[in-house]
Amino acid sequence: MKTRTIKSSITTAFLALLFAGVSYGQGGQNGQRGQEPPTVDEIFAQLDKDEDGKLAEKEVKGPLKDMFAEIDTNEDGFLSKEEIEKAPKPKGRKGKQ
After folding, report:
1. Which residue has the higher pLDDT, 91 or 39?
2. Which of 29, 32, 50, 72 is most open to solvent, judged by the fewest CB atoms within 10 Å of its CB?
3. Are residues 63 and 12 in contact, defined by beta-carbon separation less than 8 angstroms?
4. Which pLDDT tens digit goes with each residue over 30-86?
5. How far is CA 14 from CA 20, 30, 40, 65, in A?
């Protein structure tokens, strides 16, 4: 159980980093980066290519694909919004202003 929680935390952190580039590229003036990780709806808008309301392993990439089995808690082969919402939120980084 503890290992699963740790893996879920790592996955969530990777998701935040994965989408940080999108926030950085869209948002800031003077080098400002987005402060908030993407919402579950934003993740689905970017990755749910067939718009069926769930993410198949073939639709995801990077760390999300690597940790797919750990996030897919009901083991149906898809990631639902609920499964992603239940993943622990990443902690704030040290030294952030």
Report:
1. 39
2. 29
3. no
4. 444 556 778 889 989 999 999 999 999 999 886 678 788 888 999 999 999 999 888
5. 10, 25, 14, 11
Q: Are 37 and 93 in contact (CB under 8 A)?
A: no
Determine the Cα–Cα distance for residues 78 and 84; give it in Å rounded to an integer. 11
d(CA 81, CA 91): 20
Contact of 74 with 21, CB cutoff 8 Å: no
Q: Token pair for residue 69?
A: 């089995």
| Structure-block tokens of residue 6 | 């740790």
Cβ proximity of 87 and 12 under 8 Å: yes
The H or E element spanning position 80 is: strand 78-80
Bridge partner residues of 78 (DSSP): 56
Name the residue with tokens 């990077």.
Answer: 62
